[in-house]
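Methods: example folding runs. The two proteins below were folded one after another, and each record is reproduced exactly as written to the output file, sequence line first and structure-token line second.
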Amino acid sequence: MTTAPSDLTDTAVFLRLGTATLYEASKLDCFLPPRIRPVWPGAAVVGRALPVTTAPADNLPLHIALEHASPGDVLVVDGQREACGYWGEVLTAAAQARGVLGLVIDGGVRDVDQLRERGFPVFSSSVAVRTTVKDDTGTVGDPITLGTATVSRGDLVVADTDGVVVIPQASVASVLERGRAREAAEAGYMSRIAGGELTLDIYGFRPAGTD
């Protein structure tokens, strides 16, 4: 299932282009660590980032984040890579009631069947049933860093089967333009491949003197 905020333009285009093309077009280190994967097949989402940090195995900040979330937000959470059930069906129901579109977390989630049935896109670094505590408020809305990417509130999150990218607000328009250009160029390459040309020649990779 694909979900998108109503106030983001060109949402369908971002999803069609996909994370791989957007990353290549961006020329930025905007990809999140590849350990963060969709927890159910076909999950995809585009929305505005609401960054969150937690103490290890403490999901109180996720409850707090829902109070601060706006429709169209995607929670992007530094869960310290902890394999525990930070998120499940109850928080999903609460998130959907607030208009939150999805969750990206460097940490664990549970209730995967229920998340899929509800059509709520979740991307996590693990699936785990271990319990959490609720002692530390963490942070909500402050910038976070996951891998090489810095995530600030309002950045554009695009997540699909290939991974997750977070594009800074100021770069969204230019990345979209370059992504469309890359898509058009690749369509031309596919046509030439179908006509029998080799990628060595199409991309100009053939070493000199090897014709």
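Second run, written to the same file directly after the first:
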Amino acid sequence: MNDQETLAAQALRLVTTHFPHALGAVLGGSAARGCATPTSDLDVAILLPDSEASRREVIRHEGRPAELFLNTLVDVPEFFEWDRARRRGTVLFIYDQGLPLMDPYGHLSRTCEQARAVLAAGPPPLTPAEWERGRYGLTCFMDDLVDTPSANRYEQLSLADFTLREAAHLLSAYHSAWTGIGKWLPRRLLSADPVRGKALLDGHQAVAQHADPSPLAAAVEQVLDLLGGPLREGYAHRWRT
């Protein structure tokens, strides 16, 4: 057995041990891609009968942590729409790209098809108000980053993080592409826009390594140019609508 097969067998034992009435299960994440490390957790999406409750759980099985995405069949469509609304599609991608563990009644294959249809439709577009708020927020982060002395590393690094995240969110939305957080932010960003995404990531790295905000600010300017330019004076946001 290779590492991927070993982890798949471990994940299947988890399902049959803890959820003997499961209607289907799929292994996602690094374990499914064959690039897990000794400390990687198992990401497992499990379909349950409608008599149970949809939820998210983290357990430890055979010494390895496991993050479980548990959904009843009746809840799947609503949950997929919620996952889509976040623009990250975390569980959608598990069903789309994961490694099937069990599918005794065909429910898993049908759920995977549903996930692929939702992913193909793409994330919801930002509203005009969300675009404007995003442009203004990114402009503020960029301006504060440039204005912050390099000697104040705590503030500079914090601003670089927020600048990268907001720029990645807006650039992904511009391309109608999925976004991500954590390690998935650079992966989704490079998938959405290899050139501008790399410029943002390289700029963020320049702040971290050399306390130089100029490359990141220049990369952000390129993103803002796609969206109508920086937004400062003239921005207004109502507290109540």
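Comment on the second run: The radius of gyration is 21 Å.
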